[in-house]
Model the fold of this input.
Amino acid sequence: MMPSAAVGRTIRGSATAIAFALIVLPILIVVITAFSPGDYFEFPPPGLSMRWFIEFFRLAEMRNAFALSLELALAAATLATALGTMGALFLARRRGWIAALLQSLFLAPLVFPTIILGVALLLLYRTVGMPVFSGLLLAHCIVGMPYAFRTVLASAQALDPALEEAGQSLGASPSRTLFFVTLPLVWQGVVSGWLFAFIVSFGELNTALFLTGPGLTTLPIEIFSYLQFQGSQLVIAAASTLQVALIVVMVTAVERIVGMGRIIRAR
Done:
């Protein structure tokens, strides 16, 4: 009989492989099919072609939706990271029920249904007359903020407070201590939080479903509408592949930056 530890490792390894396959294989199928020269969804494709990527950029509504999603994700991730960083630095060393309550409020969008959030924001925006883009930006900021807050909070809690105290004892003001001591020490958490917020914003569907308007449609909404009411599924495969490619490029770039920082500190 196999030792219990070996059995446990085998079960964990098998479960990990199955979970990995369930996540990655559907994405790979869509990516490979996006290069099909045919007119219908077929796997494996009969050949390779850039036909459907060209078709994606030929469609004005797809181009506009892609540009809007990119602009919105960049702005929302930056705003969410700024707010999440301030909140994380404020709560990093505070204890008690008030600090716990504030942390729970920052993390609430992770467990709160985004459909309900979208309906609630829609009712609020109609009451106050919120412009469509500003409303989308605020909604995406709310959805992405917990990711930025949590990553910066972890970095800030691992920071030695003596480093900040040393800067202040040498005459640095609170603002100079923040920008020249604290932020350079937690920058990896800030960058990682920004990346998570960007990815969440770029693919957000449920909240944006209630908040988009004429001429302002994000790419997930445009994909959903095109798939439901209009043309070829292969255009959707090309759009999805572009989303995946953009996220992979950004994740790789951030990982290289963070990895370089670790190497520099190790030296």
In short: The chain has one domain: 59-266.
